[in-house]
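Blackboard transcription, Thursday session:
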Amino acid sequence: MLALGAQGVILGTRLLATREAPIHEKLKRALLDATELDTMLIMRSIGATHRVWANAAAKRCSELEASQANLPEILTSWREKRRGRCTRPGCGSGVISCGQGIGLVHDIPTVKELFERILREAEDPEETGRKLRERF
Ligand SMILES: Cc1cc2nc3c(=O)[nH]c(=O)nc-3n(C[C@H](O)[C@H](O)[C@H](O)COP(=O)(O)O)c2cc1C
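(Written on the board underneath:)
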């Protein structure tokens, strides 16, 4: 992002897989297995597009939209994500916001470790590029 000229970024998805994230461990582990192909867009039909983890709840929401469901039905499906605030074992069954960057997430560090790593990588782009090439 710095190379593209940004002075800052909004970081969302990466923080889901940190020790401190207040979501259930099983959901964190499931997200580690997700690839960049495991997200989808929902809520476009009502002008509130969100990219989310492509789980059963997201697919249900998308099906509702395709079947011309009314606004309350779509919103009820979406709001399932709020139940239990993702801290319970079954929370992955709700809709979870998630960017395509999830495909680059392979561990669950502390927030401190994560930001130290991001800073290190930003300061040494050659080493970072080498590591990425090794991985892919
Ligand atoms: C857990 C989570 C919650 C989010 N909540 C909102 C939200 O309430 N409103 C919004 O506009 N975007 C929300 N987003 C989308 C972020 O704005 C989006 O992910 C952001 O562009 C950062 O990109 P990244 O997730 O690829 O890091 C959320 C994303 C995540 C992962």
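Lecturer's comment: The two ends are 20 Å apart (CA to CA).
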